[in-house]
User: Fold this.
Amino acid sequence: MPSTLPPFDFDLLRAFLKIVENGSFTRAAERIGRTQSTVSLQIKRLEDGLGRRVFDRDSRELQLTPHGEILLGYARQILTLSEEACGRLMEPDVEGVVRLGTPEDFATAHLPDVLARFARAHPRVALEVHCDFTVHLLDGFSRGLYDLVLLKREPQGPGGGVGIWREMLEWVASPTLVLSSGPVPLVMAPAPDVYRKRALEALEAARRSWRIVYTSQSLAGLQAAVHAGLGVTVLPKEMIQPGLLRMSGVSGLPALPATEVVLYRAAGALPPAADLLAKHIVHALEAEVNRGPEAQSRDGRWPSRLGAGSYETNSKLDNAG
Assistant:
């Protein structure tokens, strides 16, 4: 047992999390701009202070020890609380209204905790969140109705806006649904939904017939219909609920291209509150991506771009879904 409190140095904890998120010391070192030997030394300092090993270096693949698994949850909480404290104590007091537009499913699945943490750190900022389809958000953004919008679009790589992640899409159905050789029964949001567009284009390209059996603007409504066995829908991997099956490749269902999720800022100088929220969203959602079950697959998600001046403003949004 260590004789003093363990040295929960924030740099050591960040290095520990980066290794877990990236699956190796080498990739973690690349992400944080340090040498592998420096990162290894940080983990040694962490383990010496704890008197416990956090990584099992004897296995072929890098794995957490039982003590490392315990530390992982606490490390995330410690760093999250640290960021909130800095936001309350060190950043300048900001106030005002921030208008954010986002698709409903993204707001439901990813934003509640993100926005709650921002609200606790900046209690004098009022958030106005409007949910709609991407094309409607684009129209409102072009008319100056939003300070920030999270959009799904055709993958473009670096370009206008800040890339958060790529959504890897899957066909999803209930285990009770039996697909025949006939038209694929589809559970979809109404046009111009991005996932609907993806599904119909992929089926047409594969020369697979289809029919819409259920339509709902609500993510909860779509998921309920799929659970009931009415048909097949399209969801990002991270939104697939327990009890639903991934159906990609089954009964001739074609592969689905990914969509990009990007954050756009209104042209010109944003109010301080909106600028802070933009940085908070990018940081928080990228951290969520790295913590997710697919984090170690390294499937094309972008590295963090949080430095000063990294936000690209572009009022012309082409090829949006």
Notes: Residues 292-321 have pLDDT under 50 and may be disordered. The two ends are 56 Å apart (CA to CA). The longest strand covers residues 96-102.
